[in-house]
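Module 6 notes. Inverse folding takes a fixed backbone as the condition and produces residue identities as the prediction. Think of it as a translation problem where the source language is geometry and the target language is the twenty amino acids. Below is one complete input and output pair. Work through it position by position during the lab.
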C-alpha cells in the first residue's frame, strides 16, 4: 500500500491523495491481508502464538554504540543519501511537516509507554508483578535515577532516529512550489514540487519504515514468554536491516553516480567515497570473522588435530560422528515425512538435542521444550500432554509393555539411541528395544530401532 500510495501521488498533478485513492489503498490493504491469510490458511489452523499484548520498555533503551554495532554501515550510507536528498529538495523541503510528524510519533510512543505503565500499576492482574519489579530494584527512590540515567545515556539513539524521520517525511511530502518571495504558489502543479524520481520515493519509504521499526522498541515491545524485548528486537531489527540494505544500495548509486540529478562536488564525493569504502570494508569483516568463529573456533575444529569432515549442514561439528552418520543413513532410508521418531529431550540451544529432527527433517515426538512452548503459546501444555514425562520413561523403563504402550499411543515408528540418549537416560532400558525391535542404520554405538510391522498394525 505504501508503494501504491507513492504511485498515486505521482499520477496526480498536485501529488495529493484524493478520497478515491484512500478508498483504493484501504481496499488493497484488506485484499492483501485476505490473500495472505488464505495462502497461509493451513498454517493458521494450527498456529498458536506466545504473543500476549504490548509491554512498556522502561529500563532498557538502546545505547547508540549498541545500535551502531548492529547497523554501523547504514549509519554512514543512509545519512549521505538523506543529506543529498534534502539538498536536492532545497526550499521545497517540508521541514515543518517533517518535525510535526516526527515529534508526533515520539509523543505517541511516550504516551503509550506511560499509559502501559499506569495500567500495569492499576490493573490487579499486573499490579503485583509491576510492584515486585520496583521493589527488587530498591523501591521508587532507586528506580527513578536508574530510568533517568539510562535514558540520558541512550539519548542519542532516539535523536538520530527522529532526525531520520524528519528528513524522510520532509522529502517525501515537499512544500508546494515556492515563488520568488517565498510564498507557496497555489496555482502551480504540485507534481513539479515533488522533484524526485519514483525510485527515490520508494527508497525513502523503505528508510522511513525501517526507522519506525527501530524506534518503536525504545518505548514498547511485544509481550511473550521471555518477558523482555529480546524477541521484538530480534524480529524488528531483521526487517529494518533488509529494508535499509535495499535503500542504502540505491542511496550510494544516487549520491555518486546519478548524473541526471544534482550531485555533490567532486571533493565532497571523494571524501564521502572514502568513508563509504571504509564502512563497507568494516561491514565485510563480519562475515569473514563470523564464519571463522562459528565454523572453526566455537566448534573446536581449529584446535582439533583430526577434525571431523566439513559438510554443508555442519552436522559433524555439533554432534558426534557416529550420531551424524546414523542420522544421515536414517534420512536416506525413509521416504517422505509420514513417520514419527523419538530422541532424547534436553535444554534448548544444546545441539546434542533435537539433532534427529534438525538433520533429517523427520517429525520427532518432542523437540526443544521452550521453543515448542513459544510456537504454541498458552496451548502448549494441552498439546504436549505427558510427552515430557513419557519420553524419559520410554528410554529408562526396562519393561517392554511400558514402551509398547507409549509407542502405540503416539504412533512412533523409530527410536534413536545415541550418545545423548545414553548420557540422559542410561543404557538400562535399551535391552527391551534390542529384543523387540529391528536395528537399522547403526554406526558405532549409535543406532535406530524400527517398530516391527506387527506393532504398526496394532496401532
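Target side of the pair, the amino acids:
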Amino acid at each position: 500500500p505504501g508503494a501504491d500510495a507513492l504511485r498515486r501521488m505521482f499520477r496526480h498533478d498536485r501529488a495529493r491523495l484524493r478520497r478515491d485513492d484512500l478508498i483504493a489503498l484501504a481496499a488493497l490493504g484488506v485484499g492483501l491481508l485476505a490473500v495472505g491469510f488464505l495462502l497461509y490458511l493451513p498454517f493458521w489452523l494450527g498456529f498458536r502464538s506466545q504473543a500476549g499484548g504490548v509491554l512498556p520498555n522502561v529500563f532498557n533503551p538502546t545505547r547508540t554504540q549498541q545500535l551502531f554495532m548492529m547497523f554501523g554501515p547504514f549509519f554512514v550510507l543512509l545519512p549521505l543519501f538523506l543529506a543529498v536528498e534534502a539538498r536536492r529538495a532545497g526550499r521545497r523541503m517540508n521541514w515543518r511537516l517533517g518535525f510535526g510528524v516526527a515529534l508526533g510519533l515520539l509523543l505517541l510512543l511516550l504516551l503509550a509507554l506511560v499509559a502501559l505503565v499506569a495500567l500495569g500499576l492499576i490493573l490487579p492482574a499486573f499490579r503485583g508483578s509491576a510492584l515486585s519489579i520496583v521493589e527488587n530494584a530498591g523501591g521508587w527512590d532507586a528506580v527513578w535515577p536508574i530510568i533517568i540515567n539510562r535514558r540520558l545515556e541512550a539519548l542519542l539513539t532516539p535523536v538520530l532516529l527522529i532526525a531520520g524521520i524528519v528528513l524522510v517525511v520532509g522529502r517525501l511530502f515537499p512544500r508546494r512550489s515556492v515563488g520568488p518571495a517565498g510564498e507557496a504558489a497555489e496555482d502551480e502543479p504540485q507534481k513539479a514540487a515533488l522533484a524526485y524520481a519514483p525510485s527515490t520515493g520508494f527508497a525513502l519509504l523503505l528508510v522511513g519504515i525501517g526507522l519506525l521499526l527501530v524506534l518503536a522498541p525504545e518505548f514498547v515491545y511485544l509481550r511473550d514468554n521471555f518477558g523482555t524485548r529480546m524477541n521484538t528486537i530480534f524480529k524488528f531489527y531483521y526487517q529494518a536491516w533488509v529494508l535499509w540494505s535495499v535503500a542504502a544500495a540505491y542511496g550510494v548509486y544516487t549520491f555518486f553516480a546519478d548524473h541526471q540529478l544534482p550531485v555533490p562536488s567532486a571533493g565532497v564525493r571523494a571524501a564521502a567515497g572514502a568513508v563509504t569504502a571504509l564502512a563497507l570494508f568494516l561491514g565485510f569483516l563480519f562475515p569473514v570473522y563470523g564464519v571463522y568463529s562459528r565454523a572453526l573456533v566455537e566448534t573446536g575444529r581449529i584446535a582439533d588435530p583430526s577434525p571431523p569432515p566439513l559438510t554443508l549442514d555442519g552436522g559433524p561439528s555439533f554432534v558426534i560422528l557416529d550420531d551424524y552418520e546414523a542420522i544421515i543413513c536414517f534420512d536416506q532410508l525413509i521416504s517422505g515425512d509420514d513417520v514419527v521418531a523419538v530422541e532424547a529431550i534436553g535444554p534448548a540451544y544444546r545441539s546434542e538435542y533435537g539433532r534427529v529432527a534438525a538433520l533429517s527433517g523427520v517429525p520427532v515426538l518432542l523437540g526443544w521444550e521452550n521453543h515448542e512452548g513459544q510456537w504454541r503459546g498458552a496451548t502448549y501444555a494441552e498439546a504436549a500432554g505427558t510427552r515430557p514425562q513419557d519420553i524419559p520413561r520410554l528410554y529408562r523403563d526396562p519393561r517392554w509393555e511400558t514402551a509398547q504402550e507409549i509407542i502405540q499411543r503416539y504412533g512412533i515408528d523409530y527410536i534413536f539411541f545415541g550418545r545423548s540418549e545414553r548420557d540422559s537416560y542410561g543404557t538400562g532400558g535399551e535391552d527391551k528395544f534390542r529384543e523387540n525391535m529391528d536395528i537399522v542404520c547403526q554406526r558405532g554405538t549409535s543406532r535406530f530401532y524400527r517398530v516391527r510391522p506387527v506393532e504398526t498394525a496394532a496401532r
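Reference fact for the lab report: DSSP finds 22 helices and six strands in the chain.
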